[in-house]
């Protein structure tokens, strides 16, 4: 009882308004606001490890999870986060329809807006969809992934994971490896990690790393041995299976041979380097189970836990702004 | 005979630009010493081969050889191709990947090279397919094949029509610093064509393709090279227009090499006049001014590599009406005398002529052969550049006899071929 109230007090002390009305991209944060959010999220981690986890910060509020793309882990992470804050949650899987996506999206937005939700969490296959939605509704919009553009809460949870593992993110060298070209996780992480003072490298076959990615403020490598040298963190990206069969890379086995993270390649990074993956993993393609399941190097399970806390921090902070 | 010396020779080494008297000492499969100059002490303790003043040069390197192995062994096997190469003074062949199955994975690369090595004749290397099954759609395992020893990547005679596929292949290959080759032939213009369009083709009633089809496709390919930064070989250039495109790309600083087939240096479209299907080639034979432009391009170095474009086709594929016959010609065994016509008839120096047959391809592919120098593999040929020969296709060692040189009187005879320190052909 007293533990719970202590955790709740810590949360209330750290609660600050979100810097923007919506959370659409990592660029909506600034270093100061991000640090405050991490502090808040840290308190939620403590809360989440207690048996009584529910607060009333969002009592009476409605959160709608609007997922135009299938996602189990992200939608349940948001759902749990909102419920622990005391909100009413509706999760709506929306079948991707064959009609023009833009029109459907706006129609859906107008309909939902009439139901007066407080937060709309949206995932959509088209880049810019969350931004478009935010212009049409009166509530806060959280981007849970738009096409290959951004997935800002993933970057925030990755940042939280790193901060807890290393204490300080500034000065770390983080390698983001794999299908950078199609990855919203990569784009959000590049933005947020750079903002927080980490050095970011991108490693992947030239067909999967945009030619001008060096202008994102990252170093680009096509060779894992060169790219991983001196890295504190190796963040693997998921490779969509359909991109491997000769379109962007020739085969799974060639991808694994040159870019799949196994013990041998991990040894090229710093001795105590940590491994991350946003999930779901293609074991034996971009990451070897041997590495993924080794809790002494893998932060992958931590990332899932931090996901709930980071999203609680985002939702609570957005509500604080609207209070 | 593991150690011997070839003395009293006229050494021809394009790599060092040396044309003069000398001797070459061989031991354990490698050149142990190159002695330049006339009066030298005869080495002792070695078997001595007296060259009697004839030409000794690095063995020829032919980077575009089709065999039928695997898949079409009645046309040609690695053994018959190797025998043919040895007889022709070719000590390294690079087989093309458009076999059946295609050489599109590391296991097949290793298979071909191991089979070739087991023959103990000439060096057999492989080019890998750029796309799976040479199908032009899905990228092949370039990285794994390169690790297995594939020297460059190409779909052979098949053009990668899909520009996006080629762009991705080039982008990906650039990451491995791999060499990509493509034969420029704009596919829609080339479809069904068996001759170069013009007065002759129309008089003969043969479907023709304009020479611009080569230029158009080369422009496409080189634009992608410029964008992706890949190392590139413009394979089998045959027209004056394409040479202009190539020269412009070189002037811009693009890393692009070019090859020409021996056939396009020796024949022109008039040769198809009596519908002899041995002159049915891909690319088709061009005009005389194209041929002369190609010879000049060899002379001035715009062309880096001359190939035999060895393409075996058995009689059943060639004894057909011209348009229905299989394209291509065998060329390994006739490569040297055919190339020497450029010396005898067009005044190319022997070194100018040998460069794109030895150090040119060796430098392009990063081979340690192609030069007369201590430490290099003992791949050597002894030849008489003036000896008259009459080509008799029936006596070629290739399993297919489709030689356009059949019955031709040429000059130049390979007297001895040494590959890896072994004498693999001896006609002294």
Low-confidence stretches of chain A: none
What's the story with the biggest beta sheet of chain B?
8 strands, mixed
Strand elements of chain A, count: 9
- Roughly how much helix do the residues of chain B carry, as a percent range? 25-40%
| SSE class of chain A | alpha/beta
Tally the helices of chain B: what do you get?
Answer: 14
Into which percent range does the helicity of residues of chain A fall? 40-55%
Span between termini of chain A: 27 Å
Q: Which whole number gives the mean pLDDT of chain B?
A: 96
What structural category arises from helix and sheet content of chain B?
alpha/beta
- The main sheet of chain A orders its strands as 7-6-5-8-9
Q: What is the end-to-end distance of chain B?
A: 17 Å
Order of helices and strands of chain A: HHEHEHEHEHEHEEHEHHEHH
Q: How many β strands of chain B by DSSP?
A: 19
Approximately what portion of the residues of chain A adopt beta-strand conformation?
5-15%
The low-pLDDT segments of chain B are none
Main beta sheet of chain A: 5 strands, parallel
Radius of gyration of chain A: 19 Å
* Gross geometry of chain A: globular
Radius of gyration of chain B: 21 Å
Descriptive overview:
The complex is a heterodimer of chains A (323) and B (428). Chain A is of the alpha/beta class and 323 residues long. Chain A has twelve helices and nine strands. Chain A has helices spanning 2-14, 31-48, 73-84, 101-114, 129-134, 152-166, 184-195, 224-228, 252-259, 263-266, 289-292, 300-322; strands at 62-67, 88-93, 119-124, 140-146, 173-177, 199-203, 219-221, 233-236, 274-276. In chain A, the strands form two sheets. A five-stranded parallel β-sheet of chain A has the order 7-6-5-8-9. In chain A, strands 2-1-3-4 form a four-stranded parallel β-sheet. The two termini of chain A are 27 Å apart. Chain B is globular, with a radius of gyration of 21 Å. In chain B, the strands form five sheets. In chain B, strands 1, 2, 3, 4, 5, 17, 18 and 19 form an eight-stranded mixed β-sheet that branches. With 428 residues, chain B is of the alpha/beta class. The mean pLDDT of chain B is 96. Chain B contains 14 helices and 19 strands. At the A-B interface, helix 9 of A face helix 3 and helix 4 of B.
């Amino acid at each position: 009882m007293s533990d719970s109230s202590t955790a709740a007090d810590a949360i209330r002390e750290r609660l600050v308004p979100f810097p923007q009305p919506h959370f659409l991209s990592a660029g909506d944060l600034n270093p100061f606001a991000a640090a405050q959010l991490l502090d808040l999220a840290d308190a939620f981690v403590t809360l989440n490890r207690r048996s009584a986890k529910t607060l009333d910060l969002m009592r009476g509020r409605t959160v709608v999870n609007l997922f135009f793309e299938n996602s189990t882990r992200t939608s349940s992470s948001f759902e749990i986060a909102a419920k622990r804050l005391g909100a009413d949650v509706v999760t709506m899987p929306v079948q991707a329809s064959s009609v023009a996506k833009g029109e459907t999206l706006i129609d859906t937005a107008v309909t939902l807006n009439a139901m007066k939700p407080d937060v709309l969490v949206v995932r959509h296959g088209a880049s810019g969809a969350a931004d478009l939605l935010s212009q049409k509704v009166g509530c806060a919009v959280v981007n849970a992934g738009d096409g290959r553009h951004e997935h800002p809460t993933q970057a925030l949870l990755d940042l939280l994971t790193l901060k807890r593992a290393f204490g300080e993110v500034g000065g770390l060298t983080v390698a983001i490896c794999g299908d950078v070209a199609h990855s919203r996780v990569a784009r959000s992480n590049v933005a947020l990690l750079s903002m927080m003072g980490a050095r970011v490298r991108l490693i992947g076959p030239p067909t999967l790393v945009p030619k001008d990615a060096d202008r994102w403020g990252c170093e680009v490598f096509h060779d894992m041995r060169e790219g991983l040298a001196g890295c504190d963190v190796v963040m693997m990206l998921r490779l969509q299976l359909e991109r491997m069969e000769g379109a962007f890379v020739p085969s799974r086995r060639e991808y694994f041979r040159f870019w799949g993270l196994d013990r041998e390649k991990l040894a090229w990074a710093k001795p105590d380097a940590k491994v991350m993956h946003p999930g779901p993993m293609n074991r034996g393609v971009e990451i070897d189970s041997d590495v993924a399941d080794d809790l002494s190097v893998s932060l992958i399970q931590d990332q899932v836990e931090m996901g709930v806390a980071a999203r609680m921090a985002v939702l609570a902070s957005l509500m604080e702004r609207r209070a | 005979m593991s150690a011997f010396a070839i003395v009293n020779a006229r050494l021809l080494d394009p790599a060092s630009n040396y044309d003069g008297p000398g001797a070459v000492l061989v031991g354990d499969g490698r050149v142990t010493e190159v002695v330049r100059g006339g009066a030298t002490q005869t080495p002792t303790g070695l078997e001595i081969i007296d060259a009697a003043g004839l030409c000794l040069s690095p063995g020829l390197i032919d980077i575009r050889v089709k065999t039928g192995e695997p898949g079409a062994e009645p046309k040609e096997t690695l053994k018959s191709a190797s025998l043919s190469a040895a007889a022709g003074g070719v000590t390294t062949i690079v087989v093309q990947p458009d076999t059946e199955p295609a050489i599109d994975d590391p296991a097949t690369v290793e298979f071909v090279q191991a089979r070739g090595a087991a023959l103990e004749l000439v060096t057999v290397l492989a080019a890998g397919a750029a796309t799976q099954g040479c199908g032009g759609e899905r990228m092949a395992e370039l990285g794994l094949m390169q690790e297995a020893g594939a020297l460059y990547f190409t779909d052979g005679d098949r053009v990668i029509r899909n520009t996006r596929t080629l762009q991705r292949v080039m982008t990906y290959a650039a990451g491995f610093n791999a060499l990509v080759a493509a034969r420029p032939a704009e596919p829609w213009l080339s479809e069904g064509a068996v001759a170069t369009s013009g007065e002759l083709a129309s008089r003969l009633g043969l479907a023709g393709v304009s020479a611009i089809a080569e230029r158009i496709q080369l422009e496409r390919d080189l634009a992608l090279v410029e964008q992706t930064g890949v190392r590139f070989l413009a394979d089998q250039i045959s027209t004056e227009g394409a040479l202009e495109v190539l020269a412009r790309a070189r002037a811009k600083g693009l890393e692009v090499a070019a090859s020409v087939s021996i056939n396009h240096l020796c024949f022109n479209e008039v040769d198809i006049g009596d519908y002899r299907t041995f002159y049915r080639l891909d690319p088709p034979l061009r005009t005389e001014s194209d041929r002369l432009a190609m010879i000049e391009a060899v002379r001035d170095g715009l062309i880096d590599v001359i190939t035999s474009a060895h393409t075996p086709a058995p009689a059943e594929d060639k004894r057909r009406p011209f348009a229905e016959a299989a394209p291509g010609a065998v060329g390994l065994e006739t490569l040297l005398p055919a190339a020497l016509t450029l010396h005898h008839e067009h005044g190319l120096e022997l070194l100018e002529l040998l460069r794109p047959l030895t150090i040119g391809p060796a430098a392009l592919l990063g081979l340690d052969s192609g030069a007369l120098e201590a430490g290099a593999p003992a791949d050597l040929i002894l030849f008489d550049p003036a000896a008259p020969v009459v080509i008799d296709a029936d006596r070629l060692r290739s399993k297919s006899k489709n030689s356009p040189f059949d019955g031709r009187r040429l000059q130049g005879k390979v007297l001895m071929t040494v590959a890896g320190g072994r004498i693999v052909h001896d006609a002294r």
